[in-house]
Amino acid sequence: MEKVNNKNAIRNLAYSGIKSKVSKYIILVLAVILTSLLFSTLFSVGGSMVNELQESTMRQVGGTFHAGFKYLTKDEYLQMKDDPKLKEVSYRILVGNGVNEEFAKIYTECYYSEDGNAKSSFSYPVKGRMPQQENEVVVSDKILEALGLPCDIGMNIKLDIDTGEDIVSNEFTVCGYYEADPICPAQMIYVSKEFQEKYAPDATVPYPQADSNNLVGRYSVDFFFSNSINIEKKVKALIARTGLREDVDYGINWAYGASNLDPSALIIIGALLVIFMFAGYLIIYNIFDINIVSDIREFGLLKTIGTTEKQLKKLVMKRANLISIIGIPIGLGLGILVAAYLLPIISGQFNSVTVGKGSLHLNIWMLLGAVVFSYLTVIFSAGKPCRKAAKVSPVETVKYTEAVDKKGKPKKRLGVVILSISLGLVILNSVFGFVSGFSMDNYVENLIVADFSVQDAQLDNPGMTFVNTTAISHDLIDELKGLDGVNSVGAVYVSEWNQEFTDESWAKIEQNVIQSDLLKQKFASHGYTDDRKDEELGYYNESKSLDGKTYGMSENVIDKLKVLETKDGNGKIDWNTFNSGDYVLINRFETDEGEVNFLNPGDKITIRSHDPKYCKVETIVSDSGEEFEVPNYDDAPVKEYEIYAVVEIPLAMELRHYGLFECDYILPEDEFLAVNGSDWNAMRVLMDVEDSKEGYINDWLENYTTTVDTTMDYDSKESITEEYSSIGRMFKIVGSVVAIILGIIGIMNFANTIITSILVRSREFAMLEAVGMTGKQQRIQLMKEGCRYFTWSAVVSLIISTILNMTLIKALTNQIPMFDWNFTLVPNLVCLPFILLLVIIIPIIAYNKLSKTSVVERLRVE
After folding, report:
1. Which pLDDT score is estimated for 385?
2. DSSP run (H or E) holding 617
3. Average pLDDT, stretch 782-798?
4. DSSP tag of 691
5. What is the DSSP code (8-state) at residue 49?
6. How confident is the model at residue 4 (pLDDT cuts 50, 70, 90)?
7. What is each CA distance from 258 to 50, 230, 281, 438, 816, in whole angstroms?
8. 53: Cβ–Cβ under 8 A, 6 or more apart, which residues?
9. Are 42 and 738 in contact (CB under 8 A)?
10. pLDDT at 648
11. What is the bridge-based pairing of β-strands 108-113 and 187-191?
12. What is the value of pTM for the model shown?
């Protein structure tokens, strides 16, 4: 028999087959629309949120560049700026810091900057222009506010700029200002090239060879590559390619962190995408397969007139393509509309500062991704039914029936329907389980350890080299303790002296830290040359000392430490034992790659007293001949302590200045004062108060820090929680939206399956009715089938949800510090009653519609 090779004929057959059975294919189009709606909503909302969160992160980082080099000389900048693999390069030169009294509570940096660098640093003037004359300046609206001035240009302001060598006090004309981001870590002051060259000339000596740590006059060079994939690898290649020194300091913009995701996280995300796609596959495959079975006689007749298997496959795929052409654009449009409606609600729940906040950030890749995923789902879903249609012989089609079980129900379809319904519930449960695990306590645990924290206004300012660590007097502590509603007040004291070790202790530190790979990695990450590394280690080995701080803490502050190991192994610090004066706590040596104990619980260390009564002042002469007076405690008593526990100090309690090793001790408050003198003041005070009194305490502290002592500042748990809680609300809303969409799709999938099954079995029901089965009996039969689907779906979904929740979801939440794993089956239990209701309602509605057609007409349907 000759092959029929007529494209027009195949196309006409494909379209006429759809026209003759519109009702069945409408349901299939609806399934495609739902699947496309799912993908387009996920891609639109997810892509826009990623874009917005990425930009928000960029604003925290301070720029949109992929990466940047720090502390370069002009010659080093010229050496790399014309590299052909760089898409865009710009620089800024550090001039100093603004040190006006008005800037006590804000951190300012002064630069000369190219226009492009200012634009990509979110600090280009919204009004005015960049400085051109020596006396011109660009500042932020926040700086103008601190100076008590309106946001306008043309005004004269006085700025004190610390260049490291001197403080330059000049009158400037504001030629432009920009709007400061509330989450930006620094306020920029931009001066002209003329001013920079006069007061902060370009550095000429490479940073590692410089005698001074002063960074003024050094170039910060930021750049873009062609894409953000594997940025760090590209930076290292750039260094090698241009011949820059190997120890050059560089930074990677962690807003592009997706390019450096942990492999296990990528596997988990990939697995979740596969599950989403498989869910769509089952939705469409099940309905497609039912339609193919109902059209099997049509395919048999076509084969009798010479249609080949290949042509039949083309016929089925043309129908699939037509369904895609109709369904995918509709689903894509609906998904975009849903995303456009939801994004302002979602975006308003968290504190991102972006252009077009809450708007759709659509791009061609996002739309293409949604279309491709939807289309591939349709094609994969049509594949197996297509092969089934092509392989059946003309003789078989006349008497074709599906394989059935003992009760006469299709075996494969039962499994597919159960799996498709179950998978929808499983995904719904998994999404809910993940987003409900967001933990505000985890997210801000290092930022909040008490209701209020009181400290010097500049203590936590990252730009301040020298800060007041003794700002909290004993009188102020007593005053705070006397406030109404205060439950506890705990002090944190600190002294900054290198830790000294005995020969025995030093031998252990050498073994644990000095000889460890972690120290080698830390040296490498900080850009240490071999000579500098040897010099550094030589000093520490000779003095048998490490940089670090000694803290003193009250009992209620000790309770806020994270205990890692204790001498008795119970993981808790007994205050009475610790407060005996014989014990000390110690932290760990930490790097980005890991951590290791300096010493272990039970080891002994010594602490030298720095009580002023033991201080002797001696004069030393520098290499330049300049004389300095320095305190000497060589004759002060030294006391031995046993390490009670290894602990981790939350960021909210630390002095945020760090050394190479950062070996910190913690003593009880009274013991610290005994070692350092009873007049030593606290660095910060932590307060826990009654819930009903938080407003009163907040008002008191606000008044105190703004009118009584303006050098002081405070943080409140409420303000920090409010700042970050919006992130938690965002996760829950996004997760809820996705969960609702998945729930609707799962329920509609069930409804589609039942309705399609009834439509294609119209002839079967007509035959049963012709031999005496009543309509009521047929409705009951359909409801029993639905209950069978429901029972199996409930069992399977609960089992798979349990397994997935305890494996994949648990692994994913463990990858992200801000999430806690919580076992839940709530979404399944909520949705199952609705599905049971549909089991009862849908068969009745569908059969009633079907029964309006006479038995004779239904028996004629092939």
Report:
1. 67
2. strand 616-621
3. 83
4. G
5. H
6. very low
7. 10, 9, 27, 20, 14
8. 352
9. yes
10. 92
11. parallel
12. 0.58
